[in-house]
Design goal:
Number of strands: 0
Helix content: 55-70%
Number of helices: 6
Shape: globular
Structural class: mainly alpha
Order of helices and strands: HHHHHH
Largest sheet: none
Distance between the termini: 50 Å
């Protein structure tokens, strides 16, 4: 709702916000939730327990966070570190939604709206002023912790019946 209201009041960045939202969310969700997390879950599907599930979620979230180091080409080191911390937490959140619902659609929509709302207000402008980041790393760690806590609550780690693990589609021998 916030995204829609922001786009109505700020149409200057609407197209670029839509483009960034789609161009980021589609490949990120396909790669990190669909391929990485899906493969890890499928490889451990037979004897899945909460320890293995958390391992799969943390590995895919770590890859998702490290992927964002590539943004160092368009922002300073501090902003990149902040983004890596926050995207780890977001990766946990997106992964938990994927595991809980068994569908990549909701994690894609959430990823899209986060990227969309982050762009709609400012466009692609990145403020590289060092004074802007005085407490930002601590705040980004807090965000990462909050996202992770929400993710683990969504996942309901102790209730295995709530997990909708993706089903491996394989070739049958006929």
């Amino acid at each position: 709702m916030i995204s829609i209201l922001s786009s109505i009041s700020n149409t200057n960045h609407l197209f670029i916000s839509l483009l960034i939202g789609l161009c980021a969310a589609i490949p990120e969700e396909c790669l990190f939730r669909g391929i990485v997390l899906g493969s890890l879950l499928n490889d451990n599907n037979k004897n899945m327990d909460k320890r293995k599930l958390l391992f799969c979620l943390i590995i895919s979230s770590t890859f998702f966070a490290l992927y964002h180091i590539g943004n160092i080409h368009s922002q300073n080191l501090t902003m990149t570190i902040i983004q890596v911390f926050e995207t780890f937490g977001m990766g946990c959140l997106f992964g938990a939604i994927y595991i809980r619902k068994g569908s990549i659609l909701l994690s894609f929509l959430l990823n899209f709206f986060i990227d969309f709302t982050g762009t709609i207000g400012n466009g692609q402008i990145v403020n590289n002023s060092p004074s802007q980041y005085k407490y930002s790393i601590v705040i980004s760690l807090i965000y990462m912790l909050i996202f992770s806590i929400i993710a683990f609550n969504i996942l309901n780690i102790d209730n295995k019946s709530k997990w909708e693990l993706p089903i491996r589609i394989g070739l049958s021998n006929q």
